[in-house]
Amino acid sequence: MTVNRSQEYIAGLVRELVKYPHETEWIEFKTNNEHPKEIGEYISALSNSAALCGKTSGYLVWGVEDNTHRIVGTRFIPSAAKVGNEELENWLLRLLVPKIQFKFFEIDLEERRVVLLEIGCAFRHPVQFEGVEHIRVGSHKKKLKDHPEKERELWRIFDQTPFEQMIAAENVPDDEVLNLLDCQAYFELLNLPAPERRTSMLDAMQAERMILRSEAGKWNITNLGALLFARQLSAFQRLKRKAIRVIVYKGNTRIDTEREQEGKKGYAVGFEGLIEFINALLPTNEVIETALRKTVPMYPEIAVRELVANALIHQDFFISGTGPSVEIFSDRMEITNPGAPLVRTERFLDSPPRSRNEALASLMRRVGICEERGSGVDKVVFQTEFYQLPAPVFEETGTNTRVVLFAPRPLNRMDRADRVRACYLHACLKYVNRDFLTNSSVRERFGISEHNKAMASRYIREAIDAETIHLDDAKAPPKFMRYVPFWAKTG
């Protein structure tokens, strides 16, 4: 649903709604009923019914006569309404679970005042107000629990409809589709010749299920199409908070923000620009190669690219009001996406890739943003080892997944936790490549000279004591001891 709502658009929408011969399960007309509790219950009922009917939104309209659908005007002024000392809109939002999108629009139509409440359809869970879920039965508002057949059907819809196939904008004309989506970029990213005819271009987008024919003969843009190829993500009400945010802080805390930028384009069409933007913000180091001084990024570009792509692909889009972020500090970089990980964080490197968003992940792979074969975590670990950086941290923080890359740090400034984590990930990387962690490989990982074998042995012992690695063969002589990650022995 596009976020830009001109007076002309709202007027046209109201005129279309009043053409319906009867109230539907997703449309309700009122004149002056402004009781806050009833409005909240209608938001719940119309949101759930919109999902049940396959609509992106439900509508509550004041100023329209119920039986005749004549525009008669209303005294209701939502912008001035309060419940106690709290504004009506905030009060409603506070009592809704989950927090869905809804917005009041006030217009003059036929010299009469009309108020339109546009309500986003329910997704993932039925919407409840004050702990009670409602539904529309015909033109009547009822409690959902009293209609188990509708409740079952609603849950069936939630289970069957992935986020990518939900509708971001409906009944969009051909020209407007091309204005909202960068269809040309789709062909460029796939190295395909762009068709000269507009209809052929739209057919190709339809074949990818990025747009679908609407009942009115126009187009519905799916979340998949908008997320990947939107010219402006802010043009889609439900997706504007899914744009990635890049934040640069002064120092190593979040106290002082130096710069903050929000992505504007869809993920596929904007990815290369996003990576270039992030790399331009990253601190650099000077290294000497073959007697020449060279400036290089503090973090390997391949690692940054893989982690940003993963954050976009694996996020939980059903968590509202938040999106992926990249935070840059003086000593580290944190990449966060909404949604708890689908596999244990300590198994990121070896587990087969899993995604909540298969269609989005598949298309992102096809356009070359990530690889088909896996999650790219092995690349990230390899790159940090190659540049002898501290090992990355993979962690679950509440309902988020976060990866932390650390700036270069000499070995004598790494603590025990850093060393244990590095040994564990080194063992994982070796094992998935059918190799083993050894004293020699640990020395290479940390840049330890050969005459300091005892230091490498001590770090291996720390990881064994932390139970992150195990000896592969207890009968092997010390010279041939080799080690595997804990799960290689325990599963």
Strand order of the largest sheet: 15-14-18-19-21-20
Counted beta strands: 23
Strand content: 15-25%
Shape assignment: elongated
First CA to last CA: what distance?
46 Å
CATH architect. name of the largest domain:
2-Layer Sandwich
- Largest sheet, described in full? 6 strands, mixed
Q: How many separate domains make up the residues?
A: 4
Q: What value does the Rg take, in angstroms?
A: 28 Å
Please estimate the helix content: 25-40%
Spans of at least 5 consecutive residues with low confidence: none
SS field, number of helical segments: 16
CATH topology label of the largest domain: Heat Shock Protein 90
Structural class: alpha+beta
Overall pLDDT confidence: 90
Please write the CATH class name of the largest domain.
Alpha Beta
